[in-house]
Specification:
With about 110 residues, this protein is mainly α. The protein is about 45% helix and about 0% strand.
Length: about 110
């Protein structure tokens, strides 16, 4: 093909603040909005109501926390769901001399 190397951070420029995409910000905004609405509606002078009001914001915040090797927690949950709910067929084609196409005895000659 072109033989070009893509820098590891090339997709970062496509993200908002270099961390979030639109879906992340919408999800987090909805969670924080729900928390603010619950804080106004519930009697938060009691601890259990304060915790109930903060759960949507904290939950969505945890889902969009960036982590190494993945985009965020939401991505890991989606990948795990896809892995365990669909039939997987991985065709390995790696840095191998034969790629499984010929007899492996030729390597030892």
């Amino acid at each position: 093909m072109g033989g070009y190397l893509i820098p590891a951070n090339s997709k970062k420029s496509m993200l908002i603040f270099g961390i979030f995409n639109k879906t992340d910000l919408i999800l987090f905004g909805l969670g924080v909005g729900a928390s603010l609405l619950l804080l106004m509606l519930l009697p938060v002078d009691e601890l259990k109501y304060a915790i109930m009001a903060l759960v949507p914001g904290v939950t969505t915040g945890v889902l969009v926390i960036p982590i190494p090797n993945y985009h965020n927690i939401r991505t890991i949950i989606g990948l795990a769901y896809t892995f365990y709910t669909t039939r997987q067929q991985y065709i390995w084609k790696g840095w191998c001399f034969l790629n499984g196409e010929e007899d492996s005895e030729q390597i030892h000659k």
